[in-house]
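Structure (tokenized):
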């Protein structure tokens, strides 16, 4: 359960998920999951991973429909997201444009890696509680006894930290991701996690350097805690 909670926090937070480069996200070395999307967003999603989630590739083909003040908005998504260590690429397949981002040095998880199993358990429990989350009774899904967590308006079923189902209901917007195929410890081509060719990328740079620059340019707005 401790791995599930820590992994879910990383997955729920895109910054954490993309920033880390050495901490394991999943307890399964490699695999593939195909999802069916339903609710306000319909379509499909496919996830490949290797090195326990240090390398991931997500392909999404979906249509999202929401109504705001009686106005219906429809958004088509055909995208690929690739994470390889601290490097992250997002690609819009409709325009063949994308962004390349480096998250090197943004978050340090070395302290978590140094923890004992008991310390990780306590840390995970405290983290979930501080965020208003809740552990629910385990449930069988897709042939696996899954941990079930309720967090931030979502309910997530995970098998060895790999999400197999997610139900979200936030401000009346409902979305469900349901795994229809789950393969564990398979050989995944290294090409899946390489920078996609034929795409026009914009460089987002290193987020740590961007933060340092922001602090240097606005020293009075972001005072050093030691000087407060």
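Design, position by position:
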């Amino acid at each position: 359960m401790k791995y599930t909670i820590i992994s879910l926090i990383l997955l729920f937070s895109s910054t954490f998920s993309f920033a880390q480069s050495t901490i394991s996200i999943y307890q399964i070395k490699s695999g593939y999951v195909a999802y069916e999307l339903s609710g306000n967003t319909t379509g499909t999603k496919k996830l490949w991973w290797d090195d326990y989630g240090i390398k991931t590739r997500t392909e999404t083909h979906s249509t999202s429909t929401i109504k705001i003040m009686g106005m219906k908005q429809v958004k088509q998504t055909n995208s690929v997201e690739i994470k390889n260590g601290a490097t992250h690429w997002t690609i819009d397949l409709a325009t063949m444009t994308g962004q390349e981002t480096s998250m090197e040095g943004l978050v340090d998880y070395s302290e978590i890696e140094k923890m004992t199993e008991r310390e990780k358990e306590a840390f995970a429990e405290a983290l979930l509680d501080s965020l208003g989350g809740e552990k629910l009774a385990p449930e069988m899904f897709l042939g696996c006894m899954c941990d079930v967590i309720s967090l931030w308006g979502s309910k997530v079923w995970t098998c060895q930290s790999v999400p197999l189902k997610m139900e979200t209901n936030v401000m009346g917007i409902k979305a469900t991701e349901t795994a229809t195929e789950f393969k564990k410890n398979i050989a995944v081509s290294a090409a899946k996690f390489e920078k996609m060719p034929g795409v026009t990328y914009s460089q987002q740079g290193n987020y740590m350097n961007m933060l340092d620059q922001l602090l240097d340019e606005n020293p009075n707005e972001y005072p050093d805690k030691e000087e407060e």
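Reviewer-requested clarification: Residues 1-21, 221-228 have pLDDT under 50 and may be disordered. Residues 215 and 222 are 6 Å apart (CA to CA).
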